[in-house]
Amino acid sequence: MRYPKEHKEETRRRIVDKAGERFRNEGIEAVGLANLMQSVGLTVGGFYAHFGSREDLVAEACEAGFARTTAALRSYLDTQPRGERTAAFIDAYLSPQHRDEPGAGCMIAANGAELARHPASTRAAFTAQVDAWIGLIDAVLAEDGLKADARALAAGLVGTMVLARAVNDPARSDAFLESGRKSLKANLRR
């Protein structure tokens, strides 16, 4: 029995979405193909009907997951008053909710170090999304009439989140988030 083209596209999207979530939650290398395919109700043999290689999936899942979270962040920031969007961005990124739910959060904080070890083609797809994220930060700074280095702000956000997730003490984790929010906001200027 042949499935319509839309079925294949929907199945591919389900695989990509689940892979992106699991990569952020568990790490890219920790997610095996057989287990991933089982989690979407398919066999590992079906994987190759959708992707040429595991690395193709990694690139696409990282790109799609990153693009989705950037778009959601843009939508959220559009609901915030001008002049307060950058602070809202910092608060949302460095929130306990983002820390505690990596599967729905930023691909950089969850997988940046791991992606540095992947092939250039995968890193190129990731880099395009990093550039889009930096572009969003630049836009939000401009909307608020602020001057700051978007790359430095991004690095501060990601570094703070990585540390907040890595420590084993909840009080220290909360302290990293709070210090990061205060420090990054203090570096903004009109």
Topology:
Layout: H1 5-26, H2 33-39, H3 44-47, H4 54-78, H5 85-93, H6 96-100, H7 107-115, H8 120-143, H9 150-166, H10 170-186
Helix pairs in contact: 1-4, 4-8, 8-9, 9-10
Task: Give short descriptive properties of this protein.
10 helices, mainly alpha, Tetracycline Repressor, domain 2, 190 residues
Characterize the structure shown.
With 190 residues, this protein is an all-alpha fold. It has one domain: Tetracycline Repressor, domain 2 (Orthogonal Bundle). The chain is 73% helix and 0% strand. It is built from 10 helices and no strands. The chain has helices at residues 5-26, 33-39, 44-47, 54-78, 85-93, 96-100, 107-115, 120-143, 150-166, 170-186. Helix 4 runs parallel beside helix 8 (120-143), helix 8 (120-143) crosses helix 9 and helix 9 (150-166) packs antiparallel against helix 10 (170-186). It is elongated and about 60 Å long.
